[in-house]
Amino acid sequence: MKAVRLHEYHRLPVVEEVPEPAVRGPLDVVVRIGGAGVCRTDLHIAEGQWAEAMGVTLPYTLGHENAGWVHAVGSAVTSVAAGDTVILHPTPTCGLCPACRAGQDMHCAASVFPGLDSDGGMAELLLTSERACVKLDPRTRPEDVAALADAGITAYHAVRKAIPLLYPGTTCVLIGAGGLGHIGIQCLAALTATTIVVVDRNPDALKLAEQLGAHATVVADGRQVDAVKDLTGGRGAEVVLDFVAEQGAEQDGFAMTARAGSYYVIGYGGTVRIPTLDIISTERNLVGNIVGTYRDLCELMVLAQAGKVTLHTKTYPLDAAAEAFQDLDAGRVRGRAILVP
């Protein structure tokens, strides 16, 4: 089968033939991929940022945002069958460790992360587990929802955590209206009554943000912190969701956060530098976010299949993976790039 493989860091991945995966264990599921999202994390992987953390041996197949149709199942699988349409939680988990028992399955002690630490779904077939499969309406096109598997639940998970802080009369600033951010806007609009302010440097992204439910937009032109303060009567926002967190956005995000407010770091790549006095004197909170739970994905798919969260996508054939990577890196993709085998 064809797969998108990373052979060297700081080089584009290549499409090549590899053996097809097969069921090995009783809870294994092989999925025929109908859509695989291309994420900024894939760019970071190609840059080598995850090399030490994941300890992978090159080459391997990229792709951690996957949806498709069940192709084969292990002997103990009961919740899905061949032909079912599914979206895949990005981290197959054990279900037995303390994190899984507590419902924090993205922190599973025995999880794997296909596309980061093992072969992923930018391929015709992917080996995963029953615990990763969320069954969908058979009319669903996998290419339309694939990026919800990671970008979607990452955004949803952050919003879900912030809901108790976003009562009527509050303001939530969202930095970055791209692949993750445009999902976050819709989640905020669907689940809260907060005033949504979106900050981005791209005018087209801000136009999309307005269409998706933003109440106000701010151009990141160097005055974005002052602009947010002006919109909030000088206070700042009760919650800031930073979907960029690099190139200075991480400093802006904390500065936009009101006293006793919470700054959620969702994007990554930068370094937060904050004097500890600024944290304790204002009681501002820094909150980290990674992926989301299986339950988050199930809830998000309810919103998606009700039409309350939709993905703005640009599709590419699998053979055009290098073009998709280049377009994403150059900022030519509004929303999400999707590979369709």
UniProtKB/TrEMBL annotation:
<dbReference type="InterPro" id="IPR002328">
    <property type="entry name" value="ADH_Zn_CS"/>
</dbReference>
<comment type="similarity">
    <text>Belongs to the zinc-containing alcohol dehydrogenase family.</text>
</comment>
<dbReference type="GO" id="GO:0016491">
    <property type="term" value="F:oxidoreductase activity"/>
</dbReference>
<dbReference type="InterPro" id="IPR050129">
    <property type="entry name" value="Zn_alcohol_dh"/>
</dbReference>
<dbReference type="GO" id="GO:0008270">
    <property type="term" value="F:zinc ion binding"/>
</dbReference>
<keyword id="KW-0560">Oxidoreductase</keyword>
<dbReference type="Pfam" id="PF00107">
    <property type="entry name" value="ADH_zinc_N"/>
</dbReference>
<dbReference type="InterPro" id="IPR011032">
    <property type="entry name" value="GroES-like_sf"/>
</dbReference>
<keyword id="KW-0862">Zinc</keyword>
<dbReference type="InterPro" id="IPR036291">
    <property type="entry name" value="NAD(P)-bd_dom_sf"/>
</dbReference>
<dbReference type="InterPro" id="IPR013154">
    <property type="entry name" value="ADH-like_N"/>
</dbReference>
<keyword id="KW-0479">Metal-binding</keyword>
<feature type="domain" description="Enoyl reductase (ER)">
    <location>
        <begin position="10"/>
        <end position="339"/>
    </location>
</feature>
<dbReference type="InterPro" id="IPR020843">
    <property type="entry name" value="ER"/>
</dbReference>
<dbReference type="InterPro" id="IPR013149">
    <property type="entry name" value="ADH-like_C"/>
</dbReference>
<dbReference type="Pfam" id="PF08240">
    <property type="entry name" value="ADH_N"/>
</dbReference>
<protein>
    <submittedName>
        <fullName>NAD(P)-dependent alcohol dehydrogenase</fullName>
    </submittedName>
</protein>
